[in-house]
Design brief:
Blueprint (H helix, E strand, L loop, with lengths): L10 H23 L4 H19 L13 H16 L1 H13 L2 H6 L5 H29 L8 H29 L2 H17 L15 H6 L1 H13 L9 H4 L1 H26 L3
């Protein structure tokens, strides 16, 4: 005898329910962010300062090893810095939710555990994309131009959007591990300020001291930046070795590993947060 599945059961229904929960949490988060529009400026501020101070004021003072306009060279570094600037605000907001007992209230509701963190990062992704739009507009005003077609240009921005989302999960994991806003505020400036200078964001690795050069070449930030410069047709730092010759592959692998590790550890920590 055959049986007919109830239309409200099954994997498809479960996936749809989780998606609805994710969107509900994201909507709640965006509602709160509407009262703090300065968050977008906060995310875009460091990249804007880098682009103006380095890419505009020093554009005639810095010479790239392979030639080209230094202002266009810096833009990719500033755009990627938006993703790094998203880490701190996300970490702080998640830590405050844990400390304030909001996580406990969410755990008492009949919703998926993963929906809370995925909804949070989905809402913060929108903030990051708005910050990226601000930085892109400033870059266009300062003279940056993509030199390739529409599809490569959009592909580069898609890669940055992916990098933003992965960095949001780094922020979530920092919140789950460090837990206190004070500690997070000490750690996250290192990510925003130091990591770009340990990459090819503003200087070619060949111009760096010998011990720092391999770190800059293998830095995942460098892989994302190099891939974007190639897709935009902007000046790039010459380099040899696997990271310089295969930036898209290095970026895809490192971002995939980072996302898998950070999301898995964050969800595991979330189950016991606040206990």
């Amino acid at each position: 005898m055959s049986t007919v599945a109830h239309p409200g059961t099954g994997r498809g229904f479960a996936a749809g329910a989780v998606l609805t929960e994710v969107l509900a949490v994201a909507g709640r988060r965006l509602h709160h962010l509407r009262r703090a529009p300065g968050r977008v400026i906060g995310v875009a501020l460091s990249p804007l300062v880098s682009m103006v101070m380095l890419g505009y004021l020093f554009r005639d003072a810095v010479r790239l090893p392979a030639g080209g306009d230094y202002g266009e060279y810096v833009f990719a570094g500033g755009a990627v810095q938006v993703a790094l600037a998203c880490v701190g605000p996300t970490a702080v907001s998640v830590a405050m939710d844990v400390k304030g007992g909001l996580v406990d209230r969410f755990r008492s509701l009949p919703i998926s555990r993963s929906a809370v963190l995925f909804g949070h990062t989905l809402a913060d992704l929108l903030v990051g994309l708005l910050g990226l739009a601000v930085v892109t507009g400033a870059g266009l005003l300062l003279g940056w131009r993509p030199r390739t077609g529409a599809l490569p240009t959009l592909a580069a921005f898609g890669l940055i959007a992916l990098f933003v989302y992965v960095m949001l999960w780094v922020g979530v994991l920092l919140a789950m591990v460090l837990r206190t806003v004070e500690t997070i505020s000490v750690v996250t400036p290192f990510i925003v300020v130091v990591l770009p200078f340990l990459s090819n964001a503003f200087l070619a690795p060949q111009a760096m001291p010998g011990p720092i050069r391999p770190l800059a070449e293998w830095n995942p930030v460098s892989a994302v930046i190099t891939a974007c410069r190639d897709l935009w047709g902007n000046p790039a730092a010459p380099g040899s070795g696997f990271p310089a010759e295969h930036p898209v592959t290095v970026a895809a692998v490192t971002l995939g590993v980072l996302f898998a590790v950070c999301s898995a550890l964050s969800l595991r920590r979330y189950r016991t947060a606040g206990t």
